[in-house]
Amino acid sequence: MNNFKEKLAGRIFLVLAFSSISALALITVFILIQGAPIMTKVGLFKFVFGMEWAPSQEKFGIFPMLVGSVSVTLGAALLGVPIGICCSIFLAEFAPATVRNIFRPAIQLLAGIPSVVYGFWGLIFIIPVIRDYLGGPGLSILAGSIILAIMILPTIISISEVSILALPRQYKEGALALGMNQWQAIWSVMLPAAKSGIVAAVILGIGRAIGETMAVIMILGNAVALPESILDPVRTLTTNIGIEMGYAAGEHRQALFATGIVLFIIIMIINASAQYITRKK
After folding, report:
1. Strand intervals (E) in 12-73
2. Burial of 32 (0-12, 13-18, 19+ CB in 10 A)
3. Cβ atoms within 10 Å of 163's Cβ, excluding its own
4. Is the pTM of the predicted complex or chain greater than 0.85?
5. 240/147 same-domain check
6. How far does Cα 141 stand from its chain's mean position?
7. How many separate helices (H) and strands (E) can be counted in the chain?
8. By Cβ atoms counted within 10 A, which residue in 59, 141, 153, 189 is the most buried?
9. Are residues 122 and 185 in the same domain?
10. Could you tell me the residue range of the domain that residue 147 belongs to?
């Protein structure tokens, strides 16, 4: 009887595992079927590196939006990664237990806040500060980078902290025994040993940033043009899909699905890199 239950449970779990893989395969096939025709008609190179996006004039170039996505994501990484790693080191090695018990739930709460709330907060606080003190319209790469940096902090902090805590304590004890102080032991021994986990946390955070839609729709300005500075408005691949899909039809709709294909490939590459780095010894 117990053997039968085990076999039944195993088959149920197998079906559930295949269902998730099947869902991914169906999504992939669907966006390929919908987006491939316009990419074939326009040409892959012209679609990806074209400078004009005017669906009513049959101009489908997503390069300005690709640059916008990369710019905002890079800015978020430059702001969020150092803060996230420093916070993880503090929680893992320096913070008293009472402080950890306050900070960890707060970080988890930060991960649970809806993205639209971050967008509203950016509209009310971040954009006026940028407009008043730095110039420009306020709706800019800088505003988007700040919001996305805050949004990726929970991912980076949580995974990096777990990677540091998972190290054998002998690493730190051996470094201290050799005459290093606590910070030298962390910087020279523990961080290099936890490098794979920390890098995976950074890559997953970047994947989270590049796939964000709602918050950046509200604070980027959505201008389809190459930016000249971090104070210029831009449009990302995700915001382009979110803004125009509601009224798109025909080739316009196909072009949005083709944009999704490009975004899908980018995110798959990022996630595959994270998996590779995590498994690498």
Report:
1. 53-54, 59-60
2. middle
3. 23
4. yes
5. yes
6. 15
7. 14, 2
8. 141
9. yes
10. 63-279
